Amino acid sequence: MRNILALLQFLLVVILTLPLALLPYRISLGAGGVMGSLLFFLWKSRRITAIENIKGAISRNAVTTDSTPESIVRQLFRNLGRSFAEVTKIHYGLGKSVIKNVKIEGAGNFHRAHAKGNGVILIAGHCGNWELMAVALSVNLTRLNVVARPIDNPYFNSVIEKTRKKYGNNVIYKKGALKKILSLLKRNETVGILMDQSVIKTEGLITDFLGKKDYTMKTPALIARKTNSPVLPIFIRRIKGGHIIEIGKEIELDRSEDSEKAVLNDTIRFNGYIEEYIRQNPHEWLWIHRRWKRIND
After folding, report:
1. Distance set, CA 144 to CA 3, 20, 49, 193, 194 (Å)
2. Residue 96 pLDDT more than 90?
3. What's the whole-model pTM score?
4. What mean pLDDT do residues 270-293 have?
């Protein structure tokens, strides 16, 4: 029964999204924006979570903006709708124009890191159209191995995985991911990790994130120290006519002899790049996520 419901859900989404994919790029973006605006009103629980998260960040002086929390969240939902439209076109094999309009800055930083021969770790957050970023990188720069959670609906998961592989992405599912990541880095491959969401105690370290303490993923720091792989920050943001991917310079690791302190300092440093992106582009981060839920003030 569960499989039948999953299949029906999948078929319904196909029926609803195919017209969106068939629209010309500019028109599909507009339609996606309208969908996002509608979702702003319909998804009350996430709208409230996002507004409260932004209010908290502003009250802690972690984010400074002239916009109201509600207007930021409205923009966020519109961007999510546009991103959905873009990714939909890619999944239907109609995303050539979407990928073409992605520029990459900082490719030299990647090439210098890759030349060291220890693989490359790219750290990012749920910022901008992160799914498009992974595809565009594989098409235009390097094969990318992305760490992800499987989607509950197996039909959706299968389609998304096939699309990612088609464009050069290899998916590493979180269960048993560490061994696979170490093997890939040993072969001088590139691994992308989104490290901005809440994690359980065993997977994280307590750090400030936008002025409030919670657990932050420690995996990138641990792997980097074990493999000596360069770590580079990478982000995508929407610009007029498309997107721009910015690859930062290699992040210098802490050289302290105290390994636990070094991992903590590295994690804090990695976190800082995501925080800076959010300060500069508050409407493009996933505020709807319950980021601060493990530790109560």
Report:
1. 31, 27, 32, 10, 13
2. yes
3. 0.95
4. 97
